[in-house]
Design goal:
Largest sheet: 2 strands, antiparallel
Number of helices: 25
Distance between the termini: 45 Å
Order of helices and strands: HHHHHEEHHHHHHHHHHHHHHHHHHHH
Strand order of the largest sheet: 1-2
Number of domains: 5
Shape: elongated
Strand content: under 5%
Helix content: 55-70%
Structural class: mainly alpha
Number of strands: 2
Length: 478
């Protein structure tokens, strides 16, 4: 918390600075909604810690849709006044206001004489300003779009909105299509044809979302993406829209849901419905797991998609993941990627439930009891550590040393310098020479020599059960 900060009364009476260049060169050509969004965003920039700074809040305060908020910021980005760093979730950076006229290249007006005439004949509700024409010229030449293609787009936008449609909207549509490779008059006609053929279907989607208006160009583009790129049939899209109808966000929220379903490889209605019904559990699991390992994420979607959902798809129970996260934190594993390595080892062992995890832990503790007996025989008074567990696992699993032979070797190692190392060397000789019984060992004589007079003491852990668990699980190869 800040040591000193403004009171709410001071914040309410504070002022924001507005550049004269903005008022003179940018404001006259921008529509009212774009200006509202820019000014309110400027207000949020000046009060970052004291106001609800989210697109949902802006939409609510300005009584606008989130789609219009995004569209407005994209317009100001074209004016070089903001930078849209991300769309979902949206992130905006305000830039210094520069002289607009200096940004415009001077184009040959004679070259675009016919273009100018046709454009003004289409946009009859207002006079087209020189700056607007300059924007059209710049788009044509910088993106290599045919002038007739842009005229077709302008006509389409006017038919969709009305003759007063703002040029920021026209430019947004034209640039979006240009980035998709729609640059010729033929391309534009084909795209418009696709959208017109989809008009009946998209009305079904809007109705399912309880949206009572015509679709915007952006929404048509989203719909075509769902149909062509994702391969979802119309009835599936409508089905998902009905499931999402009571949630805020409209078509943008539906797009986010369908995108996630597509990325998860979900194609049938049943798969999608089960996935959406499980989202509540996914978010709850993500929150608990992150809290257990000591991490906090503002956006849990990436956590769910990258870790939680794949873990649950492997068959892990929620409680099992929570317990693993708790073990991770106590063992200083405090990242999801670190936990992922442990989860994969448990999966290889078939440990997917809390019950199987507890059984595995109890079995590991039984080994600790056996190792403690070895330490006692060697005269070593301390807790079992990681090195002990790894050695014991090698003796019993890899070398197949019997209990009797281990007990006999312990007797030979008592009172030696570094008795653990001495014992390990004897047992290694038994393994190499295929000595499996005490009788065979008594007939052999092995001379071992320690490398140091100072006993090697392994790391002590305060949480004995966790030590046993993690040392044994690390032996599992992935």
């Amino acid at each position: 918390m800040a040591f000193c900060k403004f009171s709410s009364e001071v914040i309410a009476n504070n002022k924001i600075e507005l550049s004269n260049s903005f008022v003179k060169e940018f404001l006259p050509n921008a529509n009212a909604e774009c200006v509202k969004v820019y000014l309110y965003g400027l207000f949020l920039c000046n009060n970052p810690a004291n106001v609800d700074n989210s697109i949902e809040s802006i939409a609510r305060v300005l009584n606008m849709t989130e789609e219009d908020i995004v569209s407005s910021f994209l317009y100001w980005q074209e004016m070089n006044l903001v930078q849209v760093l991300n769309i979902s979730p949206i992130e905006i950076r305000y830039l210094p206001v520069k002289n607009y006229s200096a940004l415009l290249h001077k184009y040959n007006k004679d070259k675009y004489k016919n273009f100018n005439i046709q454009t003004q004949e289409i946009i009859t509700g207002r006079m087209i300003t020189p700056n607007e024409y300059q924007e059209y010229y710049h788009l044509i030449e910088s993106l290599h779009m045919e002038p007739n293609a842009l005229i077709k787009i302008i006509k389409y936008c006017v038919d969709l909105k009305n003759e007063n449609v703002g040029y920021s909207y026209i430019l947004a549509v034209a640039k979006s299509w240009a980035y998709e490779g729609i640059l010729t008059e033929e391309d534009v006609e084909s795209r418009i044809g696709d959208q017109e053929r989809s008009s009946t279907d998209i009305k079904l989607v809007l109705k399912a979302l309880n949206i009572r208006r015509t679709a915007s160009v952006e929404e048509y583009q989203l719909f075509l993406t769902w149909i062509k790129d994702f391969g979802y049939p119309v009835d599936t899209i409508v089905f998902v829209a009905k499931l999402e109808k009571n949630k805020m966000g409209g078509m943008l929220k539906l797009n986010k849901t369908l995108t996630r379903c597509f990325e998860q490889g979900l194609t049938s209605k049943k798969e999608i419905e089960d996935y959406l019904n499980s989202l509540s559990n996914l978010y709850d699991t993500a929150r608990v797991v992150c809290a257990k390992i000591g991490q906090r994420y503002d956006n849990l979607e990436n956590v769910i998609d990258t870790y939680i959902s794949p873990w649950l798809n492997l068959g892990f129970e929620k409680d099992c993941l929570v317990n693993i996260a708790n073990y991770c934190f106590k063992s200083n594993i405090k990242t999801l990627e670190g936990m992922n390595g442990l989860v994969n080892r448990f999966f290889k062992l078939g440990i997917l439930t809390s019950e199987s995890l507890e059984n595995y832990l109890n079995k590991s503790l039984e080994h600790d009891d056996q190792i403690k007996k070895v330490l006692d025989k060697l005269g070593i008074i301390r807790e079992v550590n990681g090195i002990d567990r790894k050695l014991y696992a090698t003796w019993k699993t890899s070398w197949n040393i019997s209990d009797d032979l281990l007990d006999y070797a312990c007797g030979l190692s008592t009172d030696k310098i570094q008795p653990i190392q001495y014992l390990n060397k004897i047992l290694s000789q038994y393994f190499i020479n295929k000595i499996t019984t005490v009788d065979m060992a008594q007939k052999q004589s092995f001379v071992t020599k320690s490398s140091s007079d100072k006993p090697r003491i392994g790391r002590n852990y305060s949480a004995k059960e966790l030590n046993s668990l993690f040392d044994s699980i690390e032996e599992v190869e992935l």
